[in-house]
């Protein structure tokens, strides 16, 4: 049973279900276009995920028939974007709070699972690239469409997309600004799996359950390596950094429990120690 947390906002519902944080975009009347209230909820959710040892992973999803249309273009660059006093105060202390919310900067060091129903365009596909495992409904539509509006994809697509899928396909997506079907997204490796409409959250929860059954220290260390050991590092340097993460994991009580459980042919009981 999911429990709503006090960091929720009107347009971003944050819940905890066991060891899983569930973040739900909740502005369906505006196609879940991002506004400040939504960004505030997401920012707080990702920071909580990092800080709370009882949370092992998170799911990002949305209410309504559109995952997200990205920036609220109807508001315009100078329009009312639902700014709250709390958001503006936080922005004074954390200038990149919006980029942290959108998973461009300072991504949490725990796995993020995406569950997409309907359209995920512009910022909706950009935030996708900050997640680790992605589930799409069979009717989902993706696209980094900024160029079609004379805009630039500022959430990182020109950097990340070409690393996550073949370069020439990334270039086509970015330069044409066209829509992409769920099946095509699966073919090019942009998403992990495609499921029937209405089933993405259930599938995401199944994946989260499997992650939560593993050693939380090991999962966090692997996620950190995925985040931090990037292509610009030499292989030797990356291996040394990887070993630094591995050491504490192998020295943990969980590692001993995992090996003991394997020997005794029973499920391991991990404590995160």
From TrEMBL:
Q: Which InterPro entries does the annotation name?
A: ClpP/crotonase-like_dom_sf, Enoyl-CoA_hydra/iso, Enoyl-CoA_hydra_C
Give the record's keywords alphabetically.
Lipid metabolism, Lyase
Which Gene Ontology BP annotations are present? fatty acid beta-oxidation
- Single GO MF annotation: lyase activity
What Pfam families does the record tag this protein with? ECH_1 (PF00378)
Q: Which SUPFAM superfamilies match?
A: ClpP/crotonase
Query: CDD domains of this UniProt entry?
Result: crotonase-like (cd06558)
Matching PANTHER family: (7AS)-7A-METHYL-1,5-DIOXO-2,3,5,6,7,7A-HEXAHYDRO-1H-INDENE-CARBOXYL-COA HYDROLASE (PTHR11941:SF169), ENOYL-COA HYDRATASE-RELATED (PTHR11941)
Q: Which family is annotated?
A: Belongs to the enoyl-CoA hydratase/isomerase family.
- Please give the name of this protein: Crotonase/enoyl-CoA hydratase family protein
Source organism of the structure = Spongiibacter nanhainus
Organism lineage reads as:
Bacteria, Pseudomonadati, Pseudomonadota, Gammaproteobacteria, Cellvibrionales
